[in-house]
Amino acid sequence: MNPKVDFYFNKEKKWQKEIEHLREIVLNCGLNEDLKWGCPCYTLDEKNIVLIHVFKEYCALLLFKGALLKDTHNILIQQTENVQAGRQIRFTNLQQIIEMESIVKASIFEAIEVEKAGLKVELKKTEEYKMPEEFQIILKENPDLQIAFKALTPGRQRAYLYHFSQPKLSKTREARIEKYIPHIMNGKGIDD
Hints:
The chain folds into two domains: about 5-115, Aspartate Aminotransferase, domain 1, CATH 3.90.1150; about 125-185, no CATH class. Helix content is about 45%, strand content about 15%. The protein has helices spanning about 5-10, 15-25, 95-100, 100-115, 135-140, 145-150, 155-165, 170-185; strands at about 30-35, 40-45, 45-55, 60-65, 85-90. Strands 1-2-3-4-5 form a five-stranded antiparallel β-sheet. A hairpin with a 2-residue loop joins strand 2 (about 40-45) and strand 3 (about 45-55). The longest helix is centred in the middle third of the chain and has 16 residues, at about 100-115.
């Protein structure tokens, strides 16, 4: 146990018993405990394997390369359609964790083996992301913007494409695009 992580378990009221039990399970799998993104994160040779986090309706283990696991018990959940690698195992009470303990351990050990084998999740390429029609038109009308967008890192391009394509209304998509043109022209990402 890493003392700098204790605060996370002490501050949690609703899910305290559940996450304390998850902590025991994960530590019994031989992983190192650290604090990353404000949550308990468990690593092997400084590679992230699993994270404990809480939400309003559930607490969960996040397996960083969960998409590569077999999931024979059908317990791994993809948080949103845009999450490519990570998968959650969600819990709504302590009894559920106790009943699933052997399955949870098996999933963690499988995740460890995936990491040891050096397996990587095949991430979607930038060109596989939907480019909103409104952005295509603006890029055609503004060659400098097109050059600036192509000069961005693939991750920054994907973030913009995702952000621009989310709204249902065309005028909202256009407003988002207009707002970020200066960022793109300056070589900045959406969060820079």
